[in-house]
Design a protein that fits this description.
By secondary structure, the chain is of the alpha+beta class. It has a single domain, classed as Up-down Bundle (Outer membrane efflux proteins (OEP)), CATH 1.20.1600. The chain has helices spanning 2-17, 24-34, 36-58, 82-85, 103-171, 177-211, 239-261, 303-370, 375-410; strands at residues 20-22, 62-71, 88-100, 220-222, 265-276, 286-295. The strands form two sheets. The protein has a four-stranded antiparallel sheet, with no helix packed on it. The protein has a two-stranded parallel ribbon with strand order 1-4. α5 runs antiparallel to α6 and α7 (239-261) packs antiparallel against α8. The longest helix has 69 residues, at 103-171.
């Protein structure tokens, strides 16, 4: 059973350490291409083009055919009033209508469609930003797990090598049996830790693939995330701010459209066909007519003002969100910039500490071979190296996360 576990562990290490290497751009490319949400925004833009064509179609002639046929008999004086019904009513006509819209009203309607498209583009770009941020975050997590796993594997390889040396020295009486068992226990613990980190690394890589729509079970080795800090822009130059500007223009457009809806509506119509009561010369009841239709709004209970008030309330809400964003943006950028500045010295300290720990391991390894150091002291130096390397990995990942957050807020 022990040999099977060691074989499986070795296979897992071989897969990770010798896997094909992929970088962040690979996952971003597939994630953006496969996202159904981003495809939905593209389809919404295509649909908006049809809305523009539909608006143009409504401005032209509208042709409808209608037919009304009724018969209301009067029997023994019982029945509907003939003056109202004419007893029979037969019609089959074609009607042509066209609503006359002023140029200002027409421009406002087209502007509404344009602003809707612009809003859709911004929403799509914001969704793309969110998706990229999520993919980068998951990539950083999976990359960190792989680094942790490879560190555990390196330490395990060192312990296995030292175990073989210590076994010989113990058999020669240089070290006590208890010291050899101590190293053996630590090595078994490291094997468990390495196996666990390998499983976690594989799980987070699979989650990254799933997020990007990549259906692949092959274990790949992730390269270091290639992300650099984007210089923070002023709030009004960010993509988030553009959304507030577009929303403001849409509210102005909607407020103006309310006034257009309360202007007189004029339309022209013409019809032709057959209309008869069948009472007098029905064979000659073919004809046509034409006219104008005018609708003049007079009173609607004050609904027009109510609609304007609703637009004003929406504008107040938009302004509150914009002001809050401006304040929040500056706070976030300042906080993240300070965190990044504080993180860089930590990385340098961890690097120096790891170099010292490596030097100590090398020196203690020489002493271990001659029996001039206890196994406990040697294992302590190994543990110091492990802790220093862990801190370096953790702070490096923190730096990548801070950069990802800064770029999310700063990208135009």
């Amino acid at each position: 059973m022990k040999r099977i576990q060691i074989a499986l562990l070795g296979l897992l290490l071989f897969q990770v350490l010798n896997a094909q290497q992929q970088n962040l751009d690979y996952f971003l490319l597939h994630g953006l291409q496969n996202s159904p949400l981003l495809k939905e925004y593209q389809n919404r833009l295509r649909s908006a083009q049809i809305d523009s064509l539909r608006l143009r179609a409504t401005l032209g002639m509208q042709i409808n055919a209608s037919s009304v046929n009724s018969y209301a008999p009067v029997i023994d004086g019982w029945g509907y009033d003939e003056v109202k019904t004419d007893i029979a009513n037969v019609s089959a006509m074609a009607e042509i209508t066209r609503e006359i819209i002023g140029n200002n009203n027409l421009r406002n309607k087209y502007q509404a469609l344009h602003l809707q498209n612009q809003s859709t583009v911004i929403e799509g770009s914001l969704s793309e930003k969110d998706l990229k941020k999520s993919i980068i975050s998951q990539y950083i997590l999976a990359y960190g797990d792989q680094q942790q796993h490879m560190l555990n594997a390196d330490v395990l390889a060192v312990l296995r090598k030292e175990e073989q040396i210590l076994k010989i020295l113990t058999e020669g009486g240089v070290y006590k049996q208890t010291e050899y068992l101590t190293l053996l226990v630590i090595m078994r613990q490291q094997e468990i830790r390495t196996t666990q980190s390998g499983i976690q690394s594989r799980t987070d890589l699979e989650l990254l693939n799933a997020m990007c729509g990549i259906y692949d079970t092959v274990c790949v080795r992730l390269s270091e995330p290639s992300i650099a800090v984007i210089t923070p822009a002023e709030p009004h130059n960010t993509l988030f701010y553009r959304q507030f500007d577009t929303d403001s223009l849409r509210l102005v457009n909607a407020d103006r459209q309310i006034n257009f809806e309360y202007r007189p509506k004029l339309s022209v119509y013409a019809d032709g066909g057959y209309l008869s009561s069948l009472t007098y010369m029905p064979g000659k009841n073919f004809g046509m007519s034409a006219g104008l239709s005018l609708v003049m709004p007079i009173y609607d209970g004050g609904q027009r003002k109510m609609q304007h008030d609703q637009i004003a309330i929406s504008e107040e809400t938009r302004a509150d969100y914009k002001n809050f964003f401006t304040s929040q943006y500056r706070q976030q950028i300042n906080m993240l910039t300070r965190q990044l500045a504080s993180n860089d010295p930590l990385i340098r300290q961890c690097t120096d500490q790891m170099a010292y720990a490596q030097t100590l391991i090398d020196a203690n390894r020489e002493l271990l071979g001659t029996g001039d150091i206890s196994v406990t002291d040697y294992l302590l130096s190994v543990n110091n190296y492990l802790n220093a390397k862990n801190l370096l990995i953790e702070n490096t990942l923190t730096r990548f996360r801070i950069i990802n957050e800064i770029n999310y807020w700063s990208q135009k």
